[in-house]
Amino acid sequence: MVTIAPAAPVQAGAAAPGNTGRQSRIKRNLSGYAFLIGAIACFALFMWYPMIRGFVMSFQRTRRGETTWVGWDNYIRILDDPSFWIAWKNTFYFTGLALVVGFVVPFFVALLLNEFRHAKGYLRVLVYLPVMLPPASALYLFKYYAYDPSEAGLFNAVLKSLNLPTSEWMQSPAMTIPAMVLASTWMNMGGAVLIYLASLQNIPGELYEAAELDGAGLWKRIWHVTIPQTRLILALLAMMQIVATMQLFVEPLILANGAGTQDSATSVAYLIYQHGFFQNDLNGAAALGVIMLGVLAVFSGFYLRLTTRNES
Amino acid sequence: MYRKVAALSLVAGLGLSLTACSTKSDDSGTTADGKVTITVDCQPNAAQKELLDNWNADVTEFQKQNPDITIKSISVGQQCNNPPDFTARLAGGTTADVFYGYMTDLQQVLDSGQALDVTPYANKDNVPTWDSIDPALTSVFTDAGKIYAVPVKNYSMGLVYNKTLFAKAGLDANNPPKTWAEVRDAAKKIAATGDGVSGYSEYSAGNTGGWHFTSLLYSQGGTILSEDGKKAAFNGPEGKQVLQNLKDMRYGDNSMGARQLLQWGDLLTNAAAGKVGMFVGAPDTTQAIVSQFQGKYEDWAMAPLPGQDGPAKGTLGGGEGYFFKKDLTPEQVKAGLKWIAYQKLTPGKGQFDYARAKPQNYPVGLPQPLLFANGSEAQKQELELRKANANIDTANFQLFEATPVPIKGEPRDAQAIYAVLDSAMSGVLTDPKANVDTLLKTAEDKVNQLLAAGS
């Protein structure tokens, strides 16, 4: 969101009504507007225009170089795609599981780090390191070393040494989504941990002291002090996490080589990619993109309303 | 004051740069003195040093012979074997004047409105070997009687096998499997040598599983679609046999390795590391194994695709060509055709300059690119040059070349269908309880749905 600094208060006696006032206001803020142009141009060119273009394309069909308006045809065709509901099911499953694991784990890691008296800086760097690794590199590490389905795979070797049953990981339809969530959480939790940590450090120590005097144990302190005090951050990160995980793409593309075993990794974003880049169907891809945008917009609106109401 | 100047400079700079971006070139590619310039893509990148040097030498020589033509070469990394990159360029209208595409790309190129009908120019005047080109290949790039691209490569699939692993397993490398039962038997013996070797390896992801299912189905005598192209036709005894064979090898014999969901680079990486006994592929997969994945030519040989009880009833063919961008002037089209003719279709020049390639790390002697019709003059010249300059043991490909299998093309909507069939392939290769009938029925329903929706 772009914000503009409020104009300086008009000096007494210098107020000029009508055009003159507006002109002087514009003149005063000229440099502000000038600096805004770059950001607005970038957003317009790379965000808003493609969105509008995608929306328009979703009602068109291009064949033999001719573009025609086809109404809801692309949407109907996309709804008829046999992978459509599979992709949504997988995407919701990933989002739900990522919310449970990817949202809760960073919070507790942050709580843990916050308790350390020494080596805080080092531990923070350690937790943040995977974020610095390019996602493709991190996922290839998981694919070839951790999730190798043979007994030579890192995770299988560990499981075997503990006398536990090994897994086929990405080759098992049942394990595909949990394995993607695990890799995704490892890759992305560093950022969330740092934000939680910053938020935790803003909680006044007296609140904990008071809770302790009232006989609150660890869980009660977390439940009655920490969570209420970090509620805003938790709500914001939960929404960002859901919006980001719904756009699941790079994990199936790299870990599952696309659709995975029997479509177990096909996500909505991957289906968009298939239609747009492999099936000569950019219009169908645009329609699916608009459906996804609609779902996310409705969710975000609903969520913001809910959290705002709770706040008030 | 300083802030205002800075702001105004910023606005002016931004305005100028945006203006620069939106400046449209009205370059027709022809200058007043009659010189023609064309851009051509798929110049090898810097990592392929010898190929790049060859390309640049070809450009220099061609321009010397045609002083009125300037070739501007474009290299964009993976553009020539990365469909998403190709699609993006096509949709964005940023292809080169003369641009590379697969044989299955014709419909996409036509739909994008970027294709130019080159029928009036595709003749002996511009391409001296035009009459020698296999008519089946030009027909692939023809739509409603109009030619839109010139073929520059053609291949068909066979059984590629590792002679070293054959010897290690006690198999006769000069007598490779001719049926799928023999493949199964050989795979078992090769896998038994241990060290993580797969006797037979197969794709099942990234649409390559469906691509290979098609080839395996053709070997059984099946087809992907009905004759009118409106219904799926692979859910029959032939399709079931394809999946059953794979399931038997994967779980019955455990001869296909634990790691599945392979696509092109995965399988060839394993092959180059000496971990794959056999796989289905075109002759130039051996080139990729050597030049991209550090394998050795002497390990590899090729046989015709096996059939179920005898010779294969068919094999999948494919290839590549160069399209011409719409709005090119007739002079540019002629210049482009002359360049393609020189670099891709003249025995002794460009891709057929076998004398130049012989000492390099690229194979001479592969039964490819199969561009010229049987008995044509160009084919005779090409074969003589190939034989005289071979730098690989051509005996390794003798069986494949001497036992031709009927070649069938890819189905319409190939990529969408391959994506569906990936699921059936991954099913039998990753699930010991997979039901072949259910997998094929599900795939059939999905493909029929796709076809009905006109995707």
TrEMBL record, chain A:
It is a multi-pass membrane protein. Keywords: Cell membrane, Membrane, Transmembrane, Transmembrane helix, Transport. The keyword Transmembrane applies. The chain crosses the membrane at residues 30-49, 92-113, 125-146, 177-198, 232-250, 285-304. It holds the Pfam family BPD_transp_1. Residues 88-303 form the ABC transmembrane type-1 domain. Signal peptide: none annotated. It comes from the Bacteria. InterPro entries: ABC_transporter_permease, MetI-like, MetI-like_sf. SUPFAM superfamilies: MetI-like. It is found in: Cell membrane. PANTHER family: ABC TRANSPORTER PERMEASE PROTEIN, DIACETYLCHITOBIOSE UPTAKE SYSTEM PERMEASE PROTEIN NGCF. Belongs to the binding-protein-dependent transport system permease family. This is Sugar ABC transporter permease.
Automatic annotation (TrEMBL), chain B:
It comes from the Bacteria. Residues 1-20 form the signal peptide. InterPro entries: Bact_solute-bd_prot1, SBP. Gene3D superfamilies: Periplasmic binding protein-like II. Pfam families: SBP_bac_1. The keyword Signal applies. Keywords: Signal. This is Sugar-binding protein. It comes from Actinoplanes couchii.
